[in-house]
Amino acid sequence: MVLTLSCRNGRGIVHAVSGALLSVQGDITESKQFDSPDTGTFFMRVEFTTPEPLTAVEAALAPVKEEFAMDMGLWEASRKTRTLVMCSKDGRTLNDLLFQQRAGTLAVEIPVIVSNHLELQPMAFFYGIPFVHIPVGKDAQGASTKAEAEAKLLDLVREYDIELVVLARYMQILSDDLCRRLEGRAINIHHSFLPSFKGAKPYHQAHERGVKLIGATAHYVTGDLDEGPIIEQTVQRVTHAQSAREFVIRGREVEGSTLSRAVKWHAEHRVLLDGKRTVVFD
Amino acid sequence: MVLTLSCRNGRGIVHAVSGALLSVQGDITESKQFDSPDTGTFFMRVEFTTPEPLTAVEAALAPVKEEFAMDMGLWEASRKTRTLVMCSKDGRTLNDLLFQQRAGTLAVEIPVIVSNHLELQPMAFFYGIPFVHIPVGKDAQGASTKAEAEAKLLDLVREYDIELVVLARYMQILSDDLCRRLEGRAINIHHSFLPSFKGAKPYHQAHERGVKLIGATAHYVTGDLDEGPIIEQTVQRVTHAQSAREFVIRGREVEGSTLSRAVKWHAEHRVLLDGKRTVVFD
Amino acid sequence: MVLTLSCRNGRGIVHAVSGALLSVQGDITESKQFDSPDTGTFFMRVEFTTPEPLTAVEAALAPVKEEFAMDMGLWEASRKTRTLVMCSKDGRTLNDLLFQQRAGTLAVEIPVIVSNHLELQPMAFFYGIPFVHIPVGKDAQGASTKAEAEAKLLDLVREYDIELVVLARYMQILSDDLCRRLEGRAINIHHSFLPSFKGAKPYHQAHERGVKLIGATAHYVTGDLDEGPIIEQTVQRVTHAQSAREFVIRGREVEGSTLSRAVKWHAEHRVLLDGKRTVVFD
Amino acid sequence: MVLTLSCRNGRGIVHAVSGALLSVQGDITESKQFDSPDTGTFFMRVEFTTPEPLTAVEAALAPVKEEFAMDMGLWEASRKTRTLVMCSKDGRTLNDLLFQQRAGTLAVEIPVIVSNHLELQPMAFFYGIPFVHIPVGKDAQGASTKAEAEAKLLDLVREYDIELVVLARYMQILSDDLCRRLEGRAINIHHSFLPSFKGAKPYHQAHERGVKLIGATAHYVTGDLDEGPIIEQTVQRVTHAQSAREFVIRGREVEGSTLSRAVKWHAEHRVLLDGKRTVVFD
To answer: So what EC number does this one have (chains A, B, C, D) (predicted)?
Structure first.
């Protein structure tokens, strides 16, 4: 099982938690903790085995949870996070996610893929995953169909009991309202080393500025575009001799692995929020 | 000898240059070139040996230079770039530069070090380099002494026949006027991965934003603060568990090597300007 | 067009080559060269445009080739290298190659995939590439079928006019004879940072030794197992907390991109052999 | 204070340790643990504050230590590790260590520097550290003075109450006997990515083999040359265009930082031994 918790820092927390786990014959296999000096918050993640069922463990932890006013999560470690992936036309990032999911190295199941285009339907088909096409554009009266598209998406989230939404190079900006509804359970990959080069065409901005390293950033989605808590970042070396188009190609190499790592950590309950920052117990 | 040149791109440039070098029995040991598709400019750097003196080589190249309207530079490869280093209180970056200069891996000579503080005088003394203290503050009337300080600096640049000014964590902002006078011959190290976190306290900004990589950027100084052409960048991994103070310590590790590489390349005439970008023939 | 050449170093080579290209109105778009001090060999790669056909360019270069006794190669830049990929059961590396080939970022065409197992046939099918199953094992008399399998492979190489064989985690050791026949046109990915951990189970060897970085090496195949000229290497950070199995998973992340880069460079004629080393004009 | 411990893995360890710390009003500020599946050993490192003196904490932990048959270490966090540095002629690595020690980012004090040459005496002088010259060579009868030199070194270790010996590019091979005596408290920097290129001239070996990355490895010294437990490794990109001499120069850039990190972690009691591997709680 995996236990995550956060609370105001204080004395005796580890002793209380380890005592509760001991009472259900818990055998700790991995434990990480962090005191945030900035927010005064204590974070902990424990992996353990126990012969007891989840409800018994919950009961054992309940008094500790109350005493320290903890935010607490408890999961069977083998349970997979139900994940909806959104994509557009470019499939490299999606391809990475689907391959790793099938290879068993990502603790997610993907019951449905959503795209505003049809290009990646064959890939979904190859991996045996339902593909829903939700175009975003103008209706007959010339009005945007975005609100309608987002409503459909939320229907799918409910219908498929989705716990995590992954934006795998989905090239549309989500509305503030949708961002708020998905807060803490939607991950985006931005193709720059944030906070550099927010917004559109970051590789072109990077080329224009003449940087010597380009990057990718996986972050939680918030209403503030490209400002959400960062989960993982990777960079890659470039030179003057590479064009903006080559930046795009080289960047792709790390976008997929950066996003996959972030999804893996989230699905294994390794990412906790500390204000606008993340605590990653990798 | 080292030859650098840039001109509008066109046919026959390489043939003309190699012909001129052949006429002085030049033996090319290293040659790099780059066509910038953005600016239509052709850049070239050639290292070669020749039994002829510099003036003879210049004469042989003169018609080529004129035909293609080239910007051209020609140097004895063994000649060292006369470099003035400016520093403040923190010596790590200075220490790296001085050690490498003495070890013979940086093609510079450093006839004078300038600082607005006295902390690093012993280090200059250890390396046998004159140290000039130019404080910046308020005079008796409460007016800033910055203009006066910059005038003294320019005097030193003239007096010591300085070709390159290196700002090794010199914590003062130079005036626009001084930046312009030193354009293309002053290199600064900024302790972030530009264009992220310009201005003051970049490590603290980076910590606040929760990034997973921190960096350092060596760039030419221009009037536009932290906007000059980038020569070299390096990053380093950080985690949630490191404080802003630890970011500072970890960052120091790469600031020195990043700045040293930029100085080395500049001193070996490996850096050419392509608009706001650099071409680095490393 | 792309021109590659190597010859004994001497004066006037660049001038002669650029003169020949000028005579066919060649416009050089990229040019790299290298003098190997160890072997006294000069290497050059030139990309250029010309209104003349390949035969005319060949004719123009013929006297230069003869004068300097050059090894020379000349190709249309748009021509794709005909590549046969061999794989076994694990598809991550194959998946990377096929995706990039289809995305147009690898200058290869892949007319046939060979495997000693059937697991990856669906992936070949998805990408529309013929899949040939050549099992390696024992025949009815208990004798190895390896020689027979290699004969079949060579038949396919001939039949499909193959220029490059890529071993994408093909887990069989090729015979010395086959290695010799494919010398310079077969690339393997070894899942360690060579020369560390040659042979079988390198991630387990790496874990046993307690290294802090693991890696992948793409190299040309030679009779000497894991001793061929190295084209590209990548490493990844690991810690004590990761098991050998996790090394395998993390390693996969870089195996595919390392092999793809090597294949890309080979297909673009950017890799030249300098004794047991490679010159990579990337 | 800092507590480190290791013992056979079992249930209740964390609870017992946290209970003992609670009894002395210990406030845990950092805690890391690791179960080694390979050796069945449990490792833990705790940083905590307490109003009690060290002896009281030791007394509180004594029953826990006995119950679980622990190897245990307990230190005042502010206490600096007494470190003897050995060097030869090249000062880059020494320079890094001394600078960081003085800047306060390495938790060591260095009461004495030992060298078999005199080149680095001025640097020791600059940092105000006694420098002892212990030459290694032949005596008047032509016999090696190595045994005598090592005896002198051990005298210094005793005299200065040395806890850690750092070999900062000390180019002599220590005798098996000395290695055994210093086991677990001597750190060496080897200038390759071990286990590649053991022994002499690793950069030249790396150049000969044509690798694309070079590295540095900080490890504990054991009788088995270059086979000791690895603490930290770093790599750096190289190309065909760099000579073995340039490998040496580029390598120096990372040797110092690699060794400094290893020394820092050791001095902060972050490195524990798990058989031939290290557990690094960084």
So the answer is: 3.5.1.10
